[in-house]
Amino acid sequence: MGKESQGNYFFPAKANLMPYLYLSIGLVGFYLWWLVYVRLSSVSSWLTYTLLGMERSSHLGESVWFFLYDSPKVMMLLLLVVFGVGIIRSFFTPEKTRAILSGKGEFFGNILAALLGVVTPFCSCSAVPLFIGFVAAGVPLGVTFSFLIAAPMVNEIALGLLYGLLGWKIAALYMGTGLSVAVIAGWVIGKLHMEKHIEEWVSDVNASENFEYEERLTIHDRVVYGWDAVKEIIGRVWVYVIIGIAVGAAIHGFVPEEFMASVMGRDAWWSVPLATSLGIPMYSNAAGIIPVVEALLGKGAALGTVLAFMMSVIALSLPEMVILRKVLKPRLIGVFIGVVGCGILMVGYLFNIVIQG
């Protein structure tokens, strides 16, 4: 190998400079992102109350301000979170995840599956191929369900947006309780031994499928992977984000705090099951539902009730149940809904009892 390709002490090889180049670009990009992010509140106030001439105390003015403030805020948080975790995801392909979980025993496998679900690409449309791949690879049924519960519910978008909008305490509480629901629900389903309630054709899939690992990726490849994740995920969810922010803006500006406290407050015992039931027929993702959560909490809704609502929307959505019907028989789907639903109810009541104020 010649001197030019090797470089020297003062001028290292070009390949060795790439990490420093990307690090420098990343730091500059983050600084510019932060400069814009910290000025969103003042810019949205100027747009709402100066340019549009709305009154600060009016319902419409508060709704417009919320929408103009949260729309760029959520999209900027999505950009940062999805890009960062997209790079992390380049190390965790679905094939590698199946290989890691294959042959793992119950409970430890449930914990590992739930943790892997946080960083592994997943959406409702991929539920069927992932389920088939896991079963064919010999992953226990309960462990598979722990992954399927945690991946959409406790994903990087949910955690990143909760942290950015509501703080690290609520993000940590959501992560802890979400993972607990995924682990315990998967463990319970595994103990029920309901493998016979998987559609017969799933068992005929070739179980000797070879796991294909990705080739060794360079830092450039991983950056491209992260940017592709941004284009794919934001391109898929931005409509739901805008709809969610619009709903949140309406709640923020027009719904009285007294009404929200009476319907979704701690004193209303029926608020948790009502919120859970209302969330099931909805179809949204974490990015779309979190602006609604932010507005509900701002209007006095109890934290446990709001978390139960959010979990049911993401983990028990009706469209996902329809998709899973392709591989699961109705009884197993019913057990899945019942076990996860009970876990969500317990989370809601627990936080409404423990969290005061």
Descriptive account of the structure:
By secondary structure, this protein is mainly α. It has a domain at 94-215 and 255-354. It is 74% helix and 0% strand. It has 18 helices and no strands. Helix 3 (40-51) packs antiparallel against helix 4. The chain is globular and about 65 Å long.
User: What sequence of helices (H) and strands (E) makes up the elements?
Assistant: HHHHHHHHHHHHHHHHHH
Give the end-to-end Cα distance, rounded to a whole number of Å: 68 Å
Oligomer: single chain
Backbone CA Rg:
23 Å
Task: Write out key terms for the chains shown.
357 residues; mainly alpha; 74% helix; globular; disordered N terminus
Overview in brief:
By secondary structure, the protein is an all-alpha fold.
Topology (SSEs and partners):
Blueprint: H1 3-6, H2 14-37, H3 40-51, H4 59-89, H5 94-101, H6 108-119, H7 127-136, H8 141-153, H9 156-166, H10 168-191, H11 200-203, H12 219-254, H13 257-264, H14 271-279, H15 286-298, H16 303-315, H17 318-324, H18 330-354
